[in-house]
Protein 1
Amino acid sequence: MPVPESTLWEMQQVGNDLYRLGLVSSHGGNLSLRDGHGMWITGTGTMLGRLESRHISYVTASGSHEGPPPSSDTVLHSTIFALGGAQAVVHAHPHHAVAVTFGLDEFQPEDLEGQLHLGTVPVVKQGSGQAVEIAASLQSKLVVVLEGHGAYARGQTLWEALHWITALEESAHITWLRRAMKE
Ligand SMILES: [Zn+2]
């Protein structure tokens, strides 16, 4: 099953932006786009900055796949799509967002943009229930942090999910800078 041109293009562009912006390491993060009852998702360990069609897997509703081994986060992406109206999911490792949320249950942006767009951002603890908790949080929230790891954002498109990842990182960076100025 070939990856649709528009799906490949959107994944390539957003993947490249995430890498160039330093929001993922060379082989980190993952992307998915819903397609009918299944989804297109990046393969495990693929380079988001250099995506080709051979790096993208199609996963059906029953969990079988065509293409490369799908991301280790596949069950989480499927759960997000199954629970609600998201069409796209982005997972990245924004440095400041990870750094300022250790030990928190939620992150409160201090800047106006973050407050307007994101509101309070849940911080989910790592553990066996993390996938369900992240998917459930994304029903009402645009972006969620997994403590000590990274962030998951949803949208109607990957561009929209990219927006929420970058908005979160901007807010966290501002929080970081404000703390540094107080010291
Ligand atoms: Zn990750």
Protein 2
Amino acid sequence: MRLIDSHCHIDFPQFESRRQELLEQASLSGVDEIVVPGVTEKHWGRLLDCVSHHAGLHAALGLHPCFLDQHQPEDLKRLARLLETQTVCAVGEIGLDLFIPDADLDAQLFYLDQQLALAKQFDLPVLLHVRKAHDQMLQRLRRVKLQAGGVVHAFSGSKHQAMQYVDLGFKLGIGGTITYERAKKLRSIVSEMDLADLILETDAPDMPLSGYRDEINQPARVREVAEMVAQLKRCSVEQVARITTAQAVALFHSIS
Ligand SMILES: [Zn+2]
């Protein structure tokens, strides 16, 4: 069974001493390919270095909306240079977060719009982080029309919003949240969506799965996310793996 973790921060310092071991465990669970999203300009170098030292890791670069205080407009120029010169599979993670206290929507929109334009220019998919701002994001995506599409990571919207993303060529990123019984809305959306509209992820080290709440999350757990999706879709885990992996391969050109 071949699985892909489409969103895992394996470059983070929490993994420093155990990275190789966790990648081997992931491989034993069928997870040989991992997309590693960027968060701030300061750490893009660390991310590119990490990806170059391990097989199966794929870099995405972006400025995350929750770290606005660390972004500067010059970072966008460096991003454009790196997208031109490095092997990067997506622009991300980028987005809108109106859940964080004192969210500055205008500043978030400034970085989002510039990065959506870069994704369009380089014909790359985007990894979107969106909380409490799906309608604003959908409005943006309708305007910019990204041919390469992308993933709405850790999808948290409504069924209606899910359908609108799919119509725009986006996939829903499904992770550990789905393993919690209280995630009733998300579970019902997943059970009704087409498997081809879903992509699997962990967001490790964040978003631990049910049953592992005191541990940092790790890429091997994509396997358990796949098992939960299979249960909801009443199909085999092999089928979930086959279809979601095919979607990830089609989306991220550096994964074959
Ligand atoms: Zn993330």
